[in-house]
Structure formats: structure tokens, C-alpha cells
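Incident log, structure service

09:12 report received: a user says their structure output differs between two submissions of the same chain.
09:20 pulled the input from the user's history:
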Amino acid sequence: MAIYSRVMLKLSGEAFRGDDGQNLDSAAVQHIANEVRDVAAAGVELAIVIGGGNFIRGANMAKMGVERGTADYMGMLATLINGMALQAVVESMGYPTRVLSAIDARQVVEPYIRRRAIRHMEKGRVVILAGGTGNPYFTTDTAAALRATELGCNIFLKATKVDGIYNCDPLKDEKAQRYPRLTYTQALRDNLRIIDATAFALCRENKMPIVVYSYRVAGNTLRAIKGEAVGTVVEGD
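09:34 re-ran on a clean worker, output below:
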């Protein structure tokens, strides 16, 4: 049984990329949709913040000479593509969804309005949040922490390609050690960058617990919502 009634799930754009490097892979989107279906079927109110890194990363574009603000807006547009793809697959399974965007794109998605997002969740619709915060220089991690707080979520789930927070990159160092639990202060002090510092600080200020876990393992999202030992838990000080 789920112990959280309203959940924020942060999905990176990388979760939508296939193993062969395809930017938007059908199998990857199906896998994510299966996770979303299982959560929705459990009666949990779910909001999802989508990244766009499978198509474009603002910081990388800035290195190519694109002005940072413009590059970040390009990244926000990429999140709309991912959000619409996920919506289509989840709805094909019979679960109603709404895509709400922090940047205006009314011909294809709804504008983000806090009360509207809450109402959609109360009606059992999966809410997919695209466009980040609508402002450059803020990551989608920060967008997820912000939306989790203002939408009254009980927990912030960060789905990544690794199974928690480590003291160093486990993909580069086989001796990396995973933390089962951390405090916000420890994460900030040790500069553990799996979530950016602004998002950690927002969660600490608003006492929002965080679970960082691997999206690659089927069923992990629902396990985290049930309070099972999945990934790394960040809370308290």
C-alpha cells in the first residue's frame, strides 16, 4: 500500500533515450509509461516534471556560442516533446493525463496554473509538467522541487540511471559507495550533485523528503511510494 498520497516524480530527458542513442526511444518511453501506470493504478496523485536533456542541454549549447538564456529556452521546448510523448503512451493505457507547460504553447498543451494542476490530480489525472520553471538558469531539478512544494506533494522522487546517491560517480569509479540515507545538509556540504544545490535547499527549507533511485529497474517507482528501501533517502538535519 502506498504511504504517500501525492507524489512529485522528476524524470531526466536521458530516461527517454534508447541504449542505441536514439533521442526518443519507443521502448524507453514505454518503460516509463509502465511505471506511471502502476502508480496511477494504486490511486496515488502524480505530478511529473520532465527534462529535455535527450534532445538538448542549455549549458552545452552555451559552450557552442548560443547565448545561455536562448539555450535554456531551447531546452524547455525539448521538454514539451518528451511530455507529449509520455502523455500519448500513458493515455493509450487508459489513464487520463494533462501536460501543463510553464512556457506558453497553448496550441498543444495547457498553461501551468497551480490550482488547475491540483484540480487535475484531485480528479485522478496524471499531471505532466513541461517547460521547467519557465525561466532560464534554473534546472528541471529546481523546477521539480518548486512544483512539489507548491502542489502540496508528500515526497520528491528523483529517477536516475544509478540506484541512489554515491560519494563519487559509480559509472566511473567501481569503489564508489552508495548512501542509504542522507540529510539535506550532508548533501549540500559534500557537494553531491545528483540533484542541484538549489533543489536540495528548497527541499530542506520546506521539509520535502527526497528519494533518489534508478528508473531502469521495473517497479522501483511504486516501491519508493510504498516506503520500501529503494535508492537513497534524503531528509532531516
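09:41 both user submissions now match this output. Likely a transient worker issue. Closing.
09:42 reviewer note: The longest helix spans residues 68-92. The mean pLDDT is 94.
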